Amino acid sequence: MIVKDLGLTDYVSTCNAMQDFTANRDAETADELWLLEHHSVFSQGINGQSEHVLDLGSIPLVQSDRGGQVTYHGPGQLIAYTLFDLRRLGMGVRDMVTCLENTAIAMLAEQCIDAYSDSDAPGVYIAGEKIASLGLRVKRGACYHGISINVDMDLEPFLSINPCGYQGMKMTDLKTLGCDLSIAQVKQKIVATLKMELNMKGEQ
């Protein structure tokens, strides 16, 4: 797995790059993990419904080809895009979602934060508040998009939408929870934990 740290990037150009990578990869192409933050943007999934968009203000809304509803991305939120060959890994979409959820949960557990997933609403939660969101797209047996983890960000834009299609969903971040890990530190921990989760999956 090749890990790339892309820094702060534009949403649309990054999505286009993921689409191009996936369209041009073959059975020998190494999987890549892209770590980054986005400039402030709302992204609406392919099944997105307009009623979940309340008041955008000056933040742009972009249509995305990932699954799910509307969410917000901005500085201080770590995004891990998983450009993985699921067939080669022997994983289905649900397996990949679970792997990403477990990665975030294990990383948070290291910080003594008790997090959990919800089979009815993909993502990672802490005491009813959401800290990580997921969305994937699969083409020709390979996936892209991935998971976003709120580290130290402005949470107010989430009030302008029904996050992930859930009215009244409260969002949180590591800073609010009293955890002072930096984006750089969370990147390191996510990479190590994801590799561990993938190895565990491969040994099953």
Short description:
This protein is an alpha+beta fold. The protein is built from 4 helices and 10 strands; from the N terminus they run βαβββββααββββα. The chain has helices spanning 11-24, 86-89, 93-110, 183-203; strands at 2-9, 32-38, 41-44, 61-63, 70-73, 77-85, 116-117, 124-126, 129-139, 142-150.
Q: Could you name the key traits of this structure?
A:
204 residues; alpha+beta; BirA Bifunctional Protein, domain 2; 4 helices; 29% strand; globular
Task: Describe the overall structure.
The chain is of the alpha+beta class and 204 residues long. It has a single domain, classed as Bira Bifunctional Protein, Domain 2 (BirA Bifunctional Protein, domain 2), CATH 3.30.930.10. 28% of the residues lie in helices and 29% in strands. It has 4 helices and 10 strands; from the N terminus they run βαβββββααββββα. A 7-stranded mixed sheet has the order 1-2-6-10-9-8-7, with helices on both faces. The longest helix has 21 residues, at 183-203. The model has no long low-confidence stretch (mean pLDDT 92).
